[in-house]
Amino acid sequence: MSEVKIRNEGAPVFGDLYLTKLMASTYDAKHEMIEALLAAIMKEHPYIEIDEALIRLVLDEALVNSIKHGNKYDVSKNVTVKFFGDEKRWGISITDEGEGIALEDIIPIDNANEEMLDHGRGVLLMSELMSEVRYYDSGRTLWMTLDHPRKGFGDPVPIKVSDDIPELGESD
Asked: Could you tell me the CATH superfamily of domain 5-164?
């Protein structure tokens, strides 16, 4: 499980930038974005094994949070999605046009309870299923990565993502 952090600076991109796409704050646009991201993941990283249902769930939770909590269903506001990666991992950043979030607004993962049935389970799921989850731009950008094993290479060796990405400032 990754620790959730919020930083004030912009989110980094590592490796190649495969996709940058603007999305309207609607659920129809969210479905189209998930399909576009899954297609891009399979195109750019065909040698990895992914659990499509779990990746779909993570993307759905992340995009719903941007539409619902970030942009507050305001269809005049957009969500910007970037997909990037290298030979060790891939990442996605999702930026809304909302006010951002504060760390204290996120239910602590180690304090999960029935409150999460209505609010907070998305962050828990993303933190459990992704290698790293961070928030940038004062909470307006969700940044998450997934280390990936290569097919046919046996058991994956864990890669510490935080060692590979330079810190842009300590504003946790």
From this structure: Histidine kinase-like ATPase, C-terminal domain (3.30.565.10)
